[in-house]
Design goal:
about 240 residues, alpha/beta, Nucleotidyltransferase, domain 5, about 55% helix
Length: about 240
């Protein structure tokens, strides 16, 4: 049974924490907790914690739950409407959050607007796909840069010629044959070499995504039976299907 209720308002360098007992009385208040890891070490199955959804909230929730404590991740935008309706003047959000948690768990008078917490596998995939998208944007930017330089020199390559220019096997030889200014040649060479590096990193990331998705092997096998769905696209859409 829950005996202590913890409202943790995280800031960049410290956290403000308010703790209530079963009667709803504040038994501890920390205006500046600088070591949240150490604080969490003392939690257990008799504790319930509430955090605002923000950067790193899922990471902290994992560690709180690992100690056996219950953890709720609050949607701050929806909660603001509830908090304002109370007409409270508490200076600290930690007190408002923990009061809401206590009322919810002890009386059930209203629900807590929580955010959905994806599985650890899904969160890792999201991180990897975020980087994958970044690399794709860099690839488009570099290709556009190369094309713009060519057009400034009156050159429009065929699709085949463009593929040869950006290939590691033929690119530099193709560049030697182009009738462009020296500054343009330098610009193309730099962009092409950067493109090769980004493409290599993209391929490495592709492999890492497939490795991270191994726990979803059975789900992926079912999804790739759909025409046009590859293991990569199956994993890309998985976070949406999980919710």
């Amino acid at each position: 049974m829950i005996q202590r209720f913890h409202g943790i308002d995280r800031h960049k360098r410290f956290s403000t924490i308010s703790v209530l007992n079963r009667e709803g009385q504040e038994i501890q208040f920390l205006s500046a907790c600088y070591d949240l890891r150490k604080y969490i070490e003392d939690l257990g199955p008799e504790d319930a914690v509430i955090l605002e959804a923000s950067s790193g909230a899922f990471w902290w929730a994992d560690r709180i739950e690992a100690k056996g404590a219950a953890c709720y991740i609050l949607d701050p935008h929806k909660f603001r409407i509830i908090k304002d309706s109370w007409k409270k003047t508490d200076k600290y959000d930690s007190r408002s959050m923990v009061k809401a948690l206590w009322v919810y768990l002890e009386t059930g008078e209203f629900g807590i607007p929580e955010v959905y917490k994806p599985s650890a596998v899904t969160r890792e995939l999201r991180k990897l796909f975020s980087q994958y998208g970044l690399l794709n944007r860099q690839i488009r930017m570099l290709k556009n840069s190369i094309q713009a330089i060519l057009m400034e020199n009156g050159i429009v390559l065929t699709s085949k010629g463009a593929r040869h220019l950006i290939s590691q096997q033929q690119g530099l030889e193709v560049l030697k044959e182009l009738d462009v200014s020296e500054a343009s040649r330098i610009g193309i060479k730099i962009s092409v070499e950067l493109l090769w590096n980004v493409l290599e990193k993209k391929e490495q990331l592709h492999r890492e995504i497939l490795l991270a998705g191994e726990p979803l092997e059975e789900e992926v096998k079912r999804l790739i039976t759909i025409k046009g769905i590859t293991p990569l696209t199956a994993l890309a859409f998985w976070p949406m299907w999980e919710t």
